[in-house]
Amino acid sequence: MIIKTAEFICSNTDFKKCPNTEISEFAFIGRSNVGKSSLINMLSKNKKLAKISAKPGKTQLINHFLINKEWYLVDLPGYGWAKVSKTKKEKWGDMTKDYLLYRPNLDCVFVLVDSRLEPQRIDLDFISWIGQNGIPFAIIFTKCDKLSKSKVQSSVALFKRTLLKDWEEMPQYFVSSSADGTGGKEILQFIEEVVNSRAKQ
Q: What's the stated role of this polypeptide (predicted)?
């Protein structure tokens, strides 16, 4: 897939106010500071599409971007250690969970995991919740340019071993780098296959 157009459509705090459409949606979420905005901008080839900040927690709304007029890329608030009030964190959590649970045209949630870190309980718990609720998802290991190839492989292998303690098989996953574009082609190819599958239904 080649991305020709990437257009910001709207931001919302309620999934009921999101675009009234049957077009496929692909949501991106991860722990704060995992590199979500950079990945979105890499995939869209638009450095200004998603706002990047040195301060985690920049994304505070459900943001819809229309890609090639064919599918929506949805940027969700990150979870984790963003320095905001407990009340605001709970509000983000409820808003995000409602979107994930009740958005009928959500075809896949990309859960971003920092490849440099050992498996984080917050990521494992979120993936468990996604699975328990039957929400389709894939994992994207980010920032792989920060490690050697062997280190990336061992990091992913450790995450696999940890996840397979509770899962029968490893979910679909990708290894990526916003800095050098690693994984972009494969992620977009996966999205294209899902979009085409929906179109045939």
A: Necessary for normal cell division and for the maintenance of normal septation.
